[in-house]
Amino acid sequence: MRYVVSGLSPKPYSHLYGLSEAALAEKGVKRYVAEATSGFPDRIEMRNTYSGESVLLLNHVSVKEDTPYRASHAIFVLEGAETAYRGEDEIPDVMYSRLLSLRGFDNKGMIVDADVARGADIEPLVARLFDNPRVSHINAHYAAFGCYSGRIDRI
Question: Given a cut of 70, is residue 58 above it in pLDDT?
């Protein structure tokens, strides 16, 4: 079973890069400067940010379909990120190192199956979820805070 993990496109967020704190606040966005590596996981490049890097905390709609599972939550994006991560058959370190809630969705935005995993247990769970032909994609969320992490699709 082959899969791809995708980071978010920077296009919906690039207009926020470099805005003043006041302008960000008007849009419901807050800027942070990472004080330590790994505290602010970026959803575009799918990596832990480094101390001193600027991140934007904003709301992201991860399930857009009009279902009971429609969802949005806070995420961090690295200010200035330009290239979305794409990893074939690999779980990026930013996901591997955290407890994930993996939610298998059908093509109508309904959850078919879900479970939690960390580290070496993530790939077997991805395989198990994709064994169900009704699962069209998997949304990964960080289990502790519930924030969207990334999307996993079959190849």
Answer: yes
